[in-house]
Amino acid sequence: MHRIDTPTAQKDKFGQGKNGFTNGDPATGRRATDLNSDMWDAVQEEVCTVIEAAGIQLSKGEHTQLHAAIGRLIDEQVKTRLEKNQNGADIPNKPLFLQNVGLTETVEQARNAVPSTRKVNGKALTTDITLTSGDIGALPVTGGKLNGPLGIGTDNALGGNSIVLGDNDTGFKQDGDGILGIYANNALVGYIDNSGLHMSVDVLTNGGIRAGDGKRLSLTSNNNSTMTATFNLWGDVNRPTVIELDDDQGWHLYSQRNPDGSIVFTVNGDITANTLRAGGAIYQNNGDIFGSLWGNDWLSTWINNNLVLDVQLGVGTSVTTWNNAGSWPNTPGYVVTSVWKDAQGENIDGINYAPLQKRVGNQWYTVQGGTV
Questions:
Q1: DSSP labels for 37-70?
Q2: CA–CA separation, 296 vs 282, rounded Å?
């Protein structure tokens, strides 16, 4: 079946997507709704299906077949239903009915109902009675003492003063004065006493572990690392105490106390810091070093004050020697830089010399020595 969907149908007449018919309006030029074969076929088959479902053969000359078919279909359904005014008297198999609705046991119990002369704790059953916790051996809601182990949802296999939850050997048990044991499958996995919580198995948490009251030390994980990390304390004969940090690929660093009591800190990789200190020595991130070896000063200062940073020749002097007697330069720190001679005679004509100088820090000094 479908609603009219020809081009002249009135769109959304009965709501969104629910078209209808219209008579049209000559004044506005709107056409009446056209009917096509799809619409008439749908109406025909819907009606014929109901008539044939009732077992009635279609007859062209009869116009009450739809009414008859609906009545017959209703009658067929009524035959399988109970009459309301029979109040259950027309149930064909009453014992089976009671079984199906779960009332068989109730009926059997009613046959053995307690007579009205029966009493509970001296209270007759002829009227409503009120029982206290003491009447039935229960604890009052205001509290009381339970003698023996307690099992919630199961029997108790732990014994003693214990409570098990769902599993008969999993729960809590008093293991001594001020000691509350924690059990899983009859194994003691931890306990609580007045010094704190003690666990003999791993402690797993999706949050953090925090120690301290006020200012706290926390051990947390952001759960976005590619590997698992371990902070481990161990030792042996050669390495009595080792505090080690590892991940899945090996160790990162450790602090170790040796048999002689000394401590070694070792890193499996680079160390990055603004400043490193070793005793009185300081290592800066620019490469400079401070220490007693450098006169309790920085290495850069010691080098600047003690090492020759540059060498040069000072202002030169020229002396004519061919007709003069003397010793040149014969001045401490001066060296001959060149000599000259013409083609006449055997003696040199002159020499050039200059002071040899060194720079320490920002100061130039003429070197000493070299005189005869």
A1: HHHHHHHHHHHHHHHHHTT----TT-S-HHHHHH
A2: 10
The confidence score (pLDDT) of residue 314 equals: 93
Q: Which residues share a beta bridge with 360?
A: 308, 363
Q: Per-residue confidence at 124, pLDDT binned at 50, 70, 90?
A: confident
What is the tens place of the pLDDT at every residue in 7-19?
A: 888 899 899 999 8
CB neighbours (10 Å) of residue 54?
A: 18
Mean pLDDT of the chain: 89
Instruction: Give pTM, 2 decimals.
Output: 0.45
Condensed to tens digits (0 to 9), the pLDDT of residues 331-356 reads 899 999 999 998 888 888 999 999 99
Q: Which residue has the tokens 């590619």?
A: 226
DSSP E strand boundaries for 130-287? 150-152, 162-165, 171-176, 179-184, 187-193, 196-199, 209-211, 217-219, 229-234, 241-247, 250-257, 263-267, 275-278, 281-284
Please give the average per-residue pLDDT across 210-225, as a whole number: 91
- Bridge partners, residue 165, by sequence: 152
Predicted pLDDT at 113: 66
Chain centre distance of CA 21 = 62
Which residue reads 């001679």 in tokens?
341
DSSP letters of 286-352? Answer: TS-EEEGGGTSEEHHHHHHHHSEEEEEE-S-EEEE-TT----SS-STTEEEEEEE--SSSSS--EEE
User: How many angstroms separate the CA atoms of 33 and 31, rounded?
Assistant: 6
Domain ranges of the chain: 150-204, 217-271, 277-306, 310-366
- Cα(first)–Cα(last) distance of the chain, in Å? 133
Q: What angle do CA 187, 192, 198 make, to 5 degrees?
A: 70
pLDDT for 343 equals 85
- The rounded distance, in Å, linking the Cα atoms of 222 and 29 is 74
